[in-house]
Amino acid sequence: MIEGKKRELARHQLSKIYSKEPRGELDPPEFVVLGRRPPTVEQYFGYKAELAMLRQSVLERQCVIVVGQAGIGKSSLVSNLLESLKVSVDNHFEKVVWQSMSSHANLDSLLEEIFDCLSLEPYDSTQDLSVHVTKLIAILRRERTLIVLDGIEEIFKGATNDKLYGENDNYGWFFKQMMERSHSSCLLITTREPFKDLAFAETCGQSVRIMDLKGLGQDAYGFLESQGLTDVDDGFRLLIQRYRSNPFLLKLVAARIRSYFGGDVDAFIQCDSILMSESLQQALDTQFKLGIWTSLEKQLMQIMAHNDENSEGIPFQRVFKILKKQESDLSLHEFIAAIDTLESRSLLERSQGESEPLVLTIQPVIRKYLLKDPSGVIQESLAA
Ligand SMILES: Nc1ncnc2c1ncn2[C@@H]1O[C@H](COP(=O)(O)OP(=O)(O)O)[C@@H](O)[C@H]1O
Ligand SMILES: [Mg+2]
After folding, report:
1. What's the gap in Å between 278 CA and the centre of ligand 2?
2. Domain tally for the chain?
3. What residues of the chain score a pLDDT lower than 50?
4. What is the pLDDT of residues 176-196, one digit of tens each?
């Protein structure tokens, strides 16, 4: 049970709008946010199509998953969705429960807080999980609720091909229940690690949608301006290209350019340096330690880091040949499967011009991380 202050926090009500005015027919439905506090973004840029897609998805599906690398803007996008639902007349959610997954070591702790937010009877972890989930689904059927689980990747610790959720098998079971048993609510998840089983369920027509978040694209120009920089020559284009329009990285770089280069973007670019922050390093550390990694995938990342010096990409066939020299029995099928997995983790990219061969690329920040390999994650696994 969550007591005292903790209960107050869990009950913390971020928004109860239009509650003082008499409600008219065209007023958006009353809408409360319970649980943890969603992040606020002062000046939100771009992701318009993604926001529209997300809004539609949470209204249509019982489970929605936003996947993307650290800092790409997953939590902010979902927070922005809540803002847009607040003022929307077609919002059908009555409640939102926001949970940051870093606060929960296991499913019991998560459900305990969700039960508390939804004023269900106290959660008793000695009881059978299926009894609790049945109670939860009953209320989700009656009260349209959006449950946000933000940053869930840690649950993949110790995952293997046979145990996709590693030691957290019951999470896999819980998500399946939320997706398959009929109710009128939505479970919205943000994660850096892709969900292989739910991605498959989506292709089978289950009530789940996976959305990949890939960066701000053209809106990154406005974003850089909002960070106090001015575009001279080709500076913004190069920055956006290097940091793949990742808002967190661009924010970091902009701060560095302001404080060390007097705002001179070109001077920073001339230094030919790729900025690596501690938080990004930590995020990549966890990414290389979480989930299922085959030695082929790690070898492939290493080859990319050592051969894609100018981040211009390496032709697909060349990478295959290099790998084949190291692993003579490597099949094309295995190679393609490894590329697909790495791409879904935002660690590898592919591009293909018209009638040009397929080219594989890695982001400069990931290349820099791998060449330094600060935690020895690649070396460790190759030696294993
Ligand atoms: N669309 C956006 N416009 C402006 N700033 C953004 C946008 N998306 C993300 N940010 C900023 O980038 C940083 C990382 O965003 P966040 O949502 O925490 O990323 P993620 O959850 O994918 O790790 C935050 O400081 C946030 O304010
Ligand atoms: Mg996040």
Report:
1. 16
2. 3
3. 1-23, 383-384
4. 999 999 999 999 999 998 898
